[in-house]
């Protein structure tokens, strides 16, 4: 059966019923998704940046078949082979020479990984607060949402009359530092002149201020992304090292959320490895299993692992360490290693960058690009002369409509790409994000970038009109 | 490979490193789990009550193979066949004649299902509080933990020196009503004389009091389990109907957590169906996919679905509606229907009950039993004459040691069963729980109950000594 | 000037502008309040139970004159004579032989005293939660309101359309135990048959359950009143001793709020002294200065005082230890001692009780009375035969209207008393409260009780009609 | 009696017992405080900036005598003359031509005024959050402390071993914007070059960011001081107007805390009046009664007053509108008007400023000054050449010791002043604050400034040594 099942009307989505997509995905292979009507789409955004080794990589598929024939499910207290092996691969094969990781725990999503990291940090430091950043995204469950700075992604509802209803939570948001986004610096600064006399970035100084204001003795950890997925931007170069120095100096843990930027996406196993430091706690998800099975992970330093290893922990998660999920993790990591996909991502990243440079140069509507390895964002602009954006509020509000005209620039771009069978996404109102499978071929890459190029032509034409 | 991988030392578990199990699960089939040393264990507790249609049911296995060969992963905005079908099966095939469900949303665990239910309730009612019960368990993420009444399962750490360190949360627990547990009524009452002149149970009246005290205009929902999994008890018969009446009268939603008690476990599709009422929001997990793939679900009434169907919801979950997970759900539900496993659970429940009746009668150390269908708890007691328990604090604290002697009665019972290759669990200090796969054969059932019988002999002997 | 100042229209009250009282208080003396129109009202309720030694007791007045001529205000770090003396009087003269108090701190209201007690308890135990009771009142500021069980007094607004709007607080209510109110036991029990085999009251067992459910390692203190002022009831006799035993056993502090019941009101200096135990932290207000100057106090045990006495405390309150307030406290305490008003309150209490006994016996509309010393509540009832109340929800909701007829029984009683120039109050919908100045004469007492007697006649007549 | 009462040992202070002041204040008059040993101190700091019309102004003293002889206390529902009159004076005499105030409510402290303002804002907007600033101080009760940005003043304890213990609160701090302090801009900017192209200050832009990040639909109000009392600095000129524009544009209320800066202190009745705008809610305390009686007030706009005037408000405060407190308010306001003390403060401010200019110029250890009217702060510096501060962390931590040497520069300055019988205070580690009574004579002013001048000589000498 390929068609639409009447059960679809029962599915509770996140857009109004009248706006739901009416296609059906029936298959996927490599960089392509197949639809019920026979169409094939180039998955140029990798399904929320998830598809690491490509759709249905034969070795991953084979591993899943083997796993299905072996052990369906045992509770987390049972050791099993893939759980052991996944832990070893992560700790021993992906951390370069560094031996900072002492413990790994697997859960079932990125949000759960964030929740776990927060619990671990709070227990280890015996302090109640986590400090986060504006424009951050760490998930949707209560804890993860409380460190999520993107207001539009905190589970609120926009009602028919246009009014918004935030979740009437009994939990105030955690303290939040300014987002380290140079293309529209919230501190009104310009990189690199934002550095103070000691070379410290203004946003890092601001983070120190926020931690001190919350009270150092109440703050368990500071949480970051490096490529901000939902915010669609990369932190400035000095940021990560300076955050490491800051958190160490203040005696606060550093949680690095690598749900998106991990597992080779940025051209290193983990994004933090570009910066010659390591976090105290790290999370992974999405690419960890190429999303073949829901899974997330939380990795902790040896100090933290030792601390927990001596206690009884009143914590239980049914699907933690699920055999099928771990089979997918093991297969994904082994493929990454065998095919050296991390280096490949770095190399392809160079190709993308030079192509984006050219594309941006040729389009008035493209203000710039940002990214690393195989995750990139392109910023759209209304008026190249004045730098005026389409949606002024930018990353603060959904869904990216120019309020005066109702025109949605990202909508035009995504639509034009889709007409060319290229699937792209946009998180922030003025930005489109590219994050193809790491095994995308050079040819497929060109198809995707050509589509983007053509789509930007259309936006330029509209502007000129 | 069957042995222990050195990666195991990196796995972060919940018991001290020195206490970790040193076996390896290598396979599972039907009601049995296979270990690396060749041993086979009867899975008499179904891995946290998860294994619905049995380990690796051939049809479920086949469905997973098919799914692996089809569509690995697409984001939630893509419809696909199994998602549609799973929604239809749940709404149209499992709800008897009732058409109360208007929306279904799939996430990746029971905790996520709880989180989603809480968010939905708060947004729909535009109120910040959820009221829960003592001895409840609804998961470990920040929101779910805040409605979890079992203190020992709120992610706290028991340190080497015996002291406990709760998660230094910035979120007070939600208001909590007394647990509806008749075997040790927290209100000091005896069922059924606890009913007031209108027939209302004391625990239901107490729940009204707690909701009113929290402020009806602040309470979005009351959340229940029916079989309290981690508490290991069944609510009294009148409870569910009276809770429905109460919540309706006060204008508060009722969330029914069927993570454990759903999908046939109690001899009906859903435990609430024994009581001729339906909730406003229901969650499912565990048995929903026979735990073959991590998945949870949240079902909502037509009113709620309509409300959400008209708005934009700032909510996103990567693995929501994951194709592989949904394939497992569809296969599980279809097997349940084809093999009529719901009725089978009801029938087998009768067998278990009469056998438990006899076992309890013959053992001084067994105080009673409680349950329905294929989920049962047996209460252990130190002194049948006085009714004195082993662990006085009972469900409030973890490891179930008699504090004076260090003796752990459930430890003895589980150990004796394990010596007989029967795997049982205990959540509450004085209780062991039985929840085998729904397809367990009559013969296997006898093996399990015989082991329990023999184990209780040992406990009686120890008491006599 | 005696009349109404046009400035009155700017005063922000708590009832709708259309319902504000349009009289002017111009003076007060002894047990009487004088109005601008020459009328004199017997202050039979003592202005929220505040007027200890009587309005404008000559010695108190003289002490205030002296204080005004001496030292207007110095900050709290300055010692001054009345602050020293007040501390000594409280610790050495009002605590019988017991030397439990090690520290006293003065603030400016009952709410501030509660806030201080909560902060002290949390810091001393290093734990975040305070457990309270339903139907409690401890003040209106954010912390005090969070332990206030009376929903109608948590600063919410009842809008014109009858709907209620709770303060959209970001703080869930603290865990709350059932109210220890025997006249309508929330546990459906009847005193004294509510005691378990060890003699423990059901409400005390329920309190243990609530503390355990919140997690003993998270609970800093349990807070009580003894005479519940806003709830208008006295705790059962065994309650206080059992709460002391319970909190000690669990290692949790006990905070006793004596804002109302302190300074002789119940016939002992402090209400806890009837029970042969003492709290860890005690608050006082209202009667402490006979309300001549705003003041509250927090008294702590020697252990707690020693702990704080060794540290630097980042706490500052401008008016803490205000010279004028402390002059009023010293004068009030000295008058209490010189005139032996504590014993007088005890003696007069006997008179009131026997008179109330008779009044209740003679009125079908009077269901009973409760109290001690000079604070009493009389419960009104709609139907003596069936025990049916006027306002079913009783203490849960505010204005005390019978919802079907709009009739307000307490309104009738208070109004009839007022016609007789006797001022009475009602907090709970079916209850009127008596709490005259402690120096009220026997004659004045008769006037007040006669008025009540006559008012109840009117209510009986109305019922008969 | 003039000496030390043994009761002093029971007083619970905020510094360790071994560090308590061992003097006794026995009287006060005009600008002077008298001690038991006969010494007279010039109250050059006005007791936490409280002493408006001077200590024991004869008219205020007379008014208190009259009040004591009239009406001791009636509950808030009773109108009385001084309450009416105080409301009228505030609304009609202190607000220039503007008629923005529609309601006034009196409570008993600055903290209570903050709490009330927060409750009013939350109810009116029906939103749960208040946004505040770092280095703010708004009081110590739970709500007020949650908007207090000065970590050292959030009621935490510094233990003997030097470690700090924050109040284990269950309430995360409210979202906090950077402090608008130009002398050490937290954003690393320099006024006025911190303005963006539209002239908006960087700290105002940062405030917009914090409000947006918290979610505009969750924020009820933004709270400010204008002279930050505990932070000891004045906001930059454009700040107030831009905050007004910002809050109006976002649809958020603006609460102006005038506990310190109100009642003429800055040379206008209220500090906001320097800026040609008005807040939605304003608080007052301290100077409102010259601190002769504990009192605070909350003033609200006509829109808010109308909204509340139509509802029943479940709010009660015993000492709200206390007759003696209101007598002090009326007398203070009348004296202010009669003696034109507001203009006098403005004029004297000019004198102070020119003298401070000179003093700072002549002292290497003085980095600068800031203030308006009769409230000023002087910043101390370790090294004028490099601008190096004494205490690097500055306003973040108590008690201002240079951590390496243990030297406390403010301690030296205050001590030297005290040797000269001039009482000064310091809140922030590197700053001393001047805030004498508004009626201080020119001569007394010189005495105070001379003392400061001489004290700074000593600090310069020490630096030179
Ligand atoms: C950085 C980051 N963290 C956490 C999450 C949450 O992951 P999930 O959607 O699996 O719950 C996401 C999801 O997009 C993410 O991008
Ligand atoms: C009733 C109930 N709800 C929720 C959960 C949480 O599910 P999970 O462990 O999948 O997060 C459980 C898990 O045991 C449960 O028993
Ligand atoms: C028992 C109790 N505690 C605290 C308070 C609060 O006191 P205040 O109104 O002075 O803030 C009251 C006031 O009625 C009270 O009755
Ligand atoms: C600006 C400000 N607000 C509020 C307060 C709190 O006032 P109180 O100490 O009277 O509670 C203060 C006290 O110093 C203050 O300076």
Can you tell me about this structure?
The structure is a homotetramer of 465-residue chains. The first copy, chain A, is an alpha/beta fold. The first copy, chain A, has 2 domains: 6-53 and 341-464, Aspartate Aminotransferase, domain 1, CATH 3.90.1150; 60-338, Aspartate Aminotransferase, domain 2. Chain A is 33% helix and 17% strand. The first copy, chain A, has 12 helices and 19 strands. The first copy, chain A, has helices at residues 46-49, 58-68, 81-93, 110-125, 142-146, 202-214, 239-250, 302-309, 323-338, 341-362, 409-419, 442-464, and strands spanning 25-29, 32-35, 40-43, 101-107, 129-133, 157-158, 164-165, 176-177, 219-224, 227-228, 233-234, 253-258, 281-284, 296-301, 312-313, 366-372, 375-380, 422-423, 431-434. Chain A has a 7-stranded mixed β-sheet with strand order 4-14-13-12-9-5-8, with helices on both faces. A 4-stranded mixed β-sheet of chain A has the order 1-2-3-18. In chain A, strand 10 and strand 11 (233-234) form a beta hairpin. Chain A starts with 24 loop residues before the first strand and ends with a helix. Chains in contact: A-B, A-C, A-D, B-C, B-D, C-D. The interface between A and B is large, with 134 and 135 residues. Bound molecules: pyridoxal-5'-phosphate (4 copies).
Low-confidence stretches of chain A: none
| Mean pLDDT metric of chain A | 93
Count of separate DSSP helical elements of chain A: 12
* CATH fold type of the largest domain in chain A: Aspartate Aminotransferase, domain 2
Oligomer: homotetramer
Largest interface: A-B, 134 and 135 residues
Distance N terminus to C terminus of chain A? 46 Å
Tally of domains of chain A: 2
The level 1 CATH classification of the largest domain in chain A is Alpha Beta
Count of beta strands of chain A: 19
From the spread of the alpha carbons, the general shape of chain A counts as globular
What ligands can be seen in this structure? pyridoxal-5'-phosphate
CATH superfamily caption of the largest domain in chain A: Type I PLP-dependent aspartate aminotransferase-like (Major domain)
The largest pleated sheet of chain A is described as: 7 strands, mixed
What is the spatial order of strands in the main beta sheet of chain A? 4-14-13-12-9-5-8
